[in-house]
Specification:
15 helices
Length: 283
Amino acid sequence: MSAVTPEAVSAKGPGAAGGGGLGWALADSWTMTRRELARWARRPVQVVVGLVFPVMLLLMFGFLIGGGRGIEGEYVAFLVPGMLALTMAFGLESTMLAVTQDLNKGVVDRFRSMPMASSAVLVGRSVADMLQSALGLGLLIGVGYAIGWRWHGGPVDLLAAVGLLLLFRFAMLWIGIQLALVAGRPEMVQAVQILVWPIGFLSNAIATPESMPGWLGATVEWNPMSATATAVRGLFGAPDGGAAAATGSWAAEHAGALAVLWPVALLAVFFPLAVRRFGRLSR
């Protein structure tokens, strides 16, 4: 890679080396996004596995394992929205691995020496992840439709439900980026990723809190994923699944508000932490 000269910095634009200038920051972020998308072509198996894994979970819980404890009516009406929320928490290991690999291979140091916005690396990584998450969400909705699930709301409700799901994913993504920066090494990612599983399954994604012991059900109701799943069920208008999720608790009755407040609160904590920690690298 050629050396960066002062002339190159000045040609890039004022403040580019320090990350100033919204226009240059957006352009740099899009460049880094294209870099992450180019990885898809080099690693198609990883992309396919990431898309197929949620489908396998949906089919496994829907037909192989069964379930539906505490569910009255058609289980698929309850399960599919829950699996959509569950999917938004899984699959973070690819982002975490990409971040740690760039750190250990010196790629991040090389980017930081270039006249580009310092936030572009993380923003580009997050945009690519959100694009893949949107593809996975569309695929899972299609599979749910194929196995008999239907949404009963209008187009606005559908878009609102997808928006809540992607908002939750965005918050989980920045938690993953922060954990990856803390872990620092690819071999530590698996250990960190294990922490995601309890968060995912200690929710109402596949079973109602009413079917659980009292203390566990109360904990599950306040899980951020439970709020998103309950709100999405309501927006999809599931006649049985949505009613089964409502336990009469404050968290269940205000799931829509919590589905927004939880991700925003998580972003308010982990986004600045990740950006600050990334900015301190190699100083």
